[in-house]
Amino acid sequence: MTFAVSPAEERSQSTTKVGARPAARKPLRRRLTTLGAVLAVSATLAACSFGSDGSDAVQKTVEPTPSASPIPAGLESYYDQKLVWGNCDSSIEATKESTCATFKVPKNYANPSEGDLSITAVKYVKSGVKPSGDIYTNPGGPGGSAVDFVAENASHVFTQEILDKFAIVGMDNRGTRHSTPIECITPQEMDALLSENTQDVLTEAGLAHERQRMADMGKKCLEKSDTIKWVDTVSAARDLDVLRHLNGNNKLDYLGFSYGTFFGATYAELFPKNVGHMVLDGALDPSLNYDQVAEAQMVGFEKSLVHFADECNDGNPNCFLGRGEDGAKQIMAFVRALHQKPLRTGDPKRPLTENLAITAIMGSMYNQQWFPILTQGLENAMLKGNGQILLSMADQMNDRLDDGTYKGNSKESFFAVNALDYPIEGDMDTWQKQAKELLEKHPILGEQFMLGDALRQDWPVKPVGKRGPIKAEGAPPILVIGTTGDPATPLSMAQSLAEQLDKGVLLTVKGWNHTAYNSNANECVTQTVDDIFLKDQMPKQNKYC
Predict the structure, then answer these.
(1) Cα dist. 13→47, 56, 347, 360, 411 in Å?
(2) What is d(CA 27, CA 33) in angstroms, rounded to the nearest whole number?
């Protein structure tokens, strides 16, 4: 894989049985720097979510009074719109507790005359509650739908204490799901992309093949619309400020997960005076470039895979895997063998390929609730030659529905956003040298995370983002949460972001999941976060849970 997490409804907490949708993030794949690999990972990050109860009661419309905060010059027509909360579109699985709204933003903030994009937001209000404020949230990705996340999961992710006082607001970032979505390829083409084995990018022919696949993908996206030109995180953060103003919030209260931490930190850098209370859980380090993020994630996923092998042995004296690194190496040897000989499944047209197996395995590292079903799936595959369970897991993580279509566009959006956010740094000689060093240092997963920048050279839209520390000078204290065993956003990233911020406070959480806060988290975590929003009490110093 190579990089920046991909989330989507990564925050869900559910049981892990086949057919269920446990919490997870998006997985990697062999040489995850390739397009199929990257999209495979993005898929898993956004994997599971709670379903709605099917309620469709008619909502009365609500038109909030815009905030009194200053309006940026030249953008008056956007900040002067009327926001109307009403019934959600049928494509959104909203309950009677959710309302939706749409508003316009400029494609290009530097030149608004180039046209507009339509942005969709959702607001969840617990039945019987008259909220005293709003908490905005983003589940991660990039490419995760905050609208789906809030509409389907808000009542499970946030504690009842929070829901008794606040409305929860989610905005789909430009290019994502319900907000002028990027559309690139057909479901059949996505099937092929996610299942096709990646070529060896250390060979000239393999590298050329993967570069061409990436170029072809970008070309198809651009042929459908020019939306992929405008989906950078800075522009999305400006959209969030438009929504904050239209919704009547003088200050932005915000809880972001995974990529949502970079989104939130970017907002704080752009609009420090508009920040109210901010919590960033599962932090992505904005100072790292594309390949540096990839290496940090590779180390995190490798530790998690070793931990999985240990857990298997601790829970079962007859575990089919060796302990620690030996078990991790067994798993990856099995995966590599699928490159030449995919495994049978219940669908003769869809064998378990190397890429799909990586999706299931690495995606399971996002949350230990996946471990029991992953153990069963690997045992069936490695000992019995049946890949059906792993295929079903990969489909869930890829948001592939039973009819062969895909829910949303998290994979296309994931790659398009990162393509704009991360500058390409280095040259081919440097990348090849780094790749070989990575393989030598990390033989278990090194091949999954190399040559990311090399493979992005032919994307049709050039990067516009810059990597560097975010200080958010002038913003109030911001809580950054890092989990000790987080595979996708390792603790070192949270430590770095908390240090970068002018007023950063670090909460370190012991555990192995990706991100820490949810309604079922330990009391130390939920109380620390809830007290910030409910009591305006930020920890005075770094804290450990």
Answers:
(1) 11, 24, 29, 17, 22
(2) 12
| Nearest-angstrom CA–CA distance, 404 and 34 | 23
* Mean pLDDT across 164-182: 98
Q: Per mean pLDDT, which range of 21-30, 97-106, 398-407 is the poorest?
A: 21-30
At 5, the pLDDT band (50, 70, 90 cuts) reads low
Decide if pLDDT at 505 tops 50.
yes
Q: What is the mean pLDDT of residues 92-119?
A: 96
d(CA 543, CA 482): 11
Cα–Cα distance between 377 and 357 in angstroms, integer? Answer: 10
Phi-psi region of 177 (alpha: psi -120 to 50; beta: other; left: phi over 0): left
Cis peptide before 142 (omega within 30 of 0): yes
Residues 449, 265 contacting (CB under 8 angstroms):
no
Query: Which residue shows structure tokens 């057919």?
Result: 19
Average pLDDT, the chain: 89
pTM: 0.91
Supply the Cα-derived Rg of the chain in whole angstroms.
Answer: 22
| Close Cβ partners of 248 (under 8 Å, ≥ 6 residues apart) | 64, 65, 66, 67
φ, ψ of residue 372 to 5 degrees: the values are: -60, -45
250-to-136, 224, 243, 244, 473 alpha-carbon distances in Å: 13, 38, 11, 7, 18
d(CA 392, CA 415): 23
- Mean of the pLDDT values across residues 229-234? 98
Give exposure, 184-200, as e/b (b: 16+ Cβ within 10 Å).
Answer: bbeeeebbebbbbbbbb
Q: Which of 203-207, 282-286, 327-331, 470-474 has the lowest mean pLDDT?
A: 203-207
Average pLDDT over residues 361-387: 97
Helices (H), 248-319: 259-270, 290-315
Nearest to 135 by CA among 103, 171, 166, 89: 166
Phi, psi of 483 (to 5 degrees): -105, 135
User: What is the percent of the chain where pLDDT is above 90?
Assistant: 76
Domains of the chain: 1-545 (3.40.50.1820)
Our CA angle for 266, 42, 142, nearest 5°, is 20
What CA–CA distances, in Å, run from 502 to 274, 434, 435?
Answer: 15, 33, 35
